[in-house]
Amino acid sequence: MEYSENTTATTAMATAEHSPSAVSPTSSSSPPSSPPSPPPVILSPCAACKILRRRCVEKCVLAPYFPPTEPLKFTIAHRVFGASNIIKLLQELPEAQRADAVNSMVYEANARLRDPVYGCAGAICQLQNQISELQAELAKAQAEILNMQCQNANLFELIGKQMAADADRQPQTLPSVHENTTFFFDESILGVAWEPLWT
Q1: Which domain of life is it from (predicted)?
Q2: Sequence-distant (≥ 6) Cβ neighbours of residue 87 within 8 angstroms
Q3: CB crowding 9-34: b at 16 or more within 10 Å, else e
Q4: Among 133, 129, 112, 132, which residue's Cα sits nearest to residue 121?
Q5: Residue 27: which region, alpha, beta or left (left: phi > 0; alpha: psi -120 to 50)?
Q6: What stretch of H or E contains 138?
Q7: pLDDT tens, 38-61?
Q8: Could you give the CA distance from residue 169 to residue 162 in angstroms, rounded to a whole number?
Q9: For 119, which DSSP code?
Q10: Per-residue pLDDT tens digits for 60-86
């Protein structure tokens, strides 16, 4: 009987320790958990290293100018100039001029693919011919405008001289009929005797 009472007391104490009401207020106020750390950023290789199938290092000379979102840009330049020549050229230039050099290489590569013989020089020559033709047309139009202005000036001068000559040849104005004019009725001309209206 005494053994069963001790067992019951021990069980009651263990239940009280694990019940939520028995937890002390100090233990419930646990410090806030730290925010989860952000996932590690995975940098994708640049378009050049991806096409060349090599590892893109941290200080890749091609990465700033051939981002992974523009693979066609490096493909065109690589097809004409080659990756080794592009890398060599960029390494020889200061960083301030590398972006312009890459744009020039891509433009030249596009022109070379369109015109394998002349490339960019062919496009420049064609544009220069168009400029020369437009300049000739502009000069012709300006000459025609100047000629028309001279003709108009001569015409106005001739019209002014003609009007002055007409004004000199115009006779003196005759006096008006209604000024100082007396009318006479000749009975012989009328053929009837003049009779007063009243007698």
Answers
A1: Eukaryota
A2: 61, 62
A3: eeeeeeeeeeeeeeeeeeeeeeeeee
A4: 112
A5: alpha
A6: helix 120-169
A7: 444 346 788 889 888 888 888 888
A8: 11
A9: T
A10: 889 889 988 888 999 999 999 999 999
